[in-house]
Amino acid sequence: LWTWAAAVVVVAAAAAAAAAAGQEKRLLVGMTLVPGAASTGAGKSATPLINPLFLHPRSPGRTLPCSPDSLPKALACLDGSPPAYHLHRGSGAGARGWLLQFEGGGWCNDAPSCAARAGTRRGSTRLMSKLEVFSGVLSNDPARNPDFYNWNRVKLRYCDGGSFAGDSEFRNGSSVIYMRGQRIWDAIIADLLTKGLAKAEKG
Fold first, then answer.
1. How confident is the model at residue 74 (pLDDT cuts 50, 70, 90)?
2. What is the number of other CB atoms lying within 10 angstroms of the CB of residue 18?
3. Which residue from 107, 105, 106, 97 is spatially nearest to 138, judged by alpha carbons?
4. How far apart are alpha carbons 155 and 98 in whole angstroms?
5. Got the DSSP string for 8-25?
6. How many CA atoms lie within 13 Å of 170's alpha carbon, on the beta-carbon side?
7. DSSP 151-162
8. Cβ(27)–Cβ(135) below 8 Å
9. 175/41 Cα distance (integer angstroms)
10. Which residue, 194, 169, 139, 182, is CA-closest to 26?
11. Which of 89, 100, 157, 198 is deepest in the core (most CB within 10 A)?
C-alpha cells in the first residue's frame, strides 16, 4: 500500500513539474500614453488636423506620415481619454525589427452605440488594464515565438470605435464623443518613430 501511494505521489509530482515547464512565463508590459495627447474635456473644440510629410532619415526619397512635432493635441479615445500602446523593446539581432499588433474589438455604428462604448474599455484607456500579457507573436520566449521574440513588439490599444480610421466628433449638449482614430494612428506612429521605428530594417 505504501509503495503504491509513494508511486502515485512521484507520478503526480512529475506531472506537475512537466506542466510547469510547459507553461509560458507571463510577460507583463506596461501601458504608454501617447505624449501630448492630454485628455480632451467635454465641450472643447478639436484642433484641425495638420499632417505634413517629412523625409525619412535614412532614405531621402521616402517620406513618413508626420513629424512628431506637428501632431495636434486634440486626439482622444471615444470618451476623451488619451490613446495608448504597449511596447516591449527588441534586442540583439532583432533590435531593428518591429511588429505592430492591432487590438481588435469591432465598431460602434452610430452615436448611441459609440456613447455606450465610450463607457467601456473599448472606448476609454481609463478603463483598460494598464498591464498587458504579451504572448503568441508578442512573446519573448524563443521556443514559442522563434520569429519575433527579440523584435520590438507593440500592441496598439483600440479605443476609437472605427479601426483607427475616423476623424470627427459628435456633440449633444455638453457631451462629446470623439472619433479620432486617424489622429490616434498618426500620433502613435510618430511617437514610435522617435523610439526606433524610423530605423526599422524588418517589419
1. low
2. 10
3. 97
4. 11
5. HHHHHHHHHHHHHHHSPP
6. 16
7. SEEEEE---SSS
8. yes
9. 9
10. 139
11. 157
pLDDT at 20 over 70: no
Q: Which of helix, strand or coil describes residue 182? A: helix
Cα dihedral 12, 13, 18, 22, rounded to 10, equals 100
> Mean pLDDT for the chain?
77
Asked if 78 contacts 114 with a C-beta cutoff of 8 angstroms, the reply is yes
Nearest to 71 by CA among 45, 47, 102, 55: 47
In the block, which residue shows the cell 507573436?
137
Going by their DSSP bridges, the two strands 98-102 and 152-156 should be labelled as parallel
Give all strands (DSSP E) within 52-114, no chain letters.
Answer: 54-55, 63-64, 84-88, 98-102
- Which residue spans within 57-107 are E strands per DSSP? 63-64, 84-88, 98-102
What is the total residue count of the chain?
203
Q: Where is average pLDDT lowest: 2-6, 127-131, 165-169?
A: 2-6
- Beta pairing class for 28-33 and 131-133: antiparallel
